[in-house]
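Database export, one record per block. Field names are fixed; values are copied verbatim from the stored entry.
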Amino acid sequence: MLLPPCLVLAVSTLPFVVSAIPALRTSQWPIQIPEEDIRLSQSNRVMEQNDTICDAGSKQWSGTVNLGKGRDMFFWYFESLSHPKDDPLIIWLNGGPGASSMLGSFYEIGACLVDKTQNSTYRNPNSWTNLANIVFIDQPIGTGFSYTEDRKLWAQTLQDATLDFDKFLDGFFALFPQLDNGKRDVHFVGESFGGQYAPHYAAATRRDFASIILINPWIDPVYHVLARWEHICASGKDYMHFNQTLCVHMEEGYSTCETHGNECQLTQNPSICLEAFNVCLSGIQKWVEMGMEHRDWYDDRNKCLKPEDCDSGFSPVRRYLDSDSVKKALGLKSSFKYDPMNEAFNEKWTNGVDATVPSTRQIATLLDAKDTKVLILNGNNDISVPTASLVRTLDNLPWSKHAAYLTKKLSPWYYKDSSGSQQLGGELKQVGNLALVTVNNAGHMNVHDQPIATLSILQKWLKSRKLSVE
């Protein structure tokens, strides 16, 4: 589970086309590889990986950055397949909270994807390493390969996690100084609850990023719940066959939820936002849950007749990365248990003070005070984070170009599929530093569901950070 369900344009019509995969280049700098077990604390560790675990086609390293005794933050870094010396760096975070970023690597956009039937991996032809160097980070402490049994060592709040992440970047760039030379673009990606992580971390750090990219982001919890009525009952998705009586009940609770949500957005007060969220749970969410039997919260096209039908890649990633061969390659003891979702961490954070407060102030800070480009991609089939909620949140976002953004219309965007045919990808609009891209036929993990389409957007974004004509 990525998020608990209870929480939980004037644009050029030219297609955005992915260029052919460039030839592999060799590593552009030497890395000194220590032989010690990377789980030892009090120092940073890095291990070069061969193609046994992942035939990436480029150099790759795994390791940890130590943040204090018993607090080691794990990363897996892959060089670009193109020009690793010059290509941008992408920092990737999954959400949860408590989800491992190895899901992003081995199920979504990484160099290798897990074969669900063979418990092995295969080269991903649509990997983002075609365009950039990428580091996947298991964070906060307590997540994925950054797991520790001592819960007192886990990050307790977003503020704790922000401090940890900033310290991690210092340690990571000390291991790979050529990535932090002041000339290379660094892009920061957050998926799902990464819509909280990335804005908070980027707004608070002394570092500047070329852009922030948010994928089906958990930005405003109240608005996400509010928009589920629109997604399920008022969007023309007849194939969902949702009970109309339940839709009537949801509509009756809409205005009260909206009023409380607006107060939360205005004040950003944790107590007010929690109250608003609870109002929306009773007025809308409880009716949604009554009609969700065998439906996938993260992709309304799916039927969940068996648990593995709708587990968003957790089962195959867990099986593969928890195998003895992988743990040995990573320098881990066989007794270490890898889990792509720390349910205890998830429960702790979703019941914490940060759970219901929007990250809109942090996004506004990035857009204006830090002059950072922000791209949001949202799959149109996601029930947990409906596209309508992102449209509403961004249209109401208080920033310097609010009026211009609000009045601009969404326009279609296109891409070429694997056969070279032009396809409608969704809709898009951009004003100044802010861009929203909706993705057709895609759920919560839209970059997994539409890899060619979203890679075409990424290619254009990395090149110019401009997707539409203003």
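Remark 1: Residues 119 and 319 are 7 Å apart (CA to CA).
Remark 2: The chain has one domain: 1-220+310-470.
End of record.
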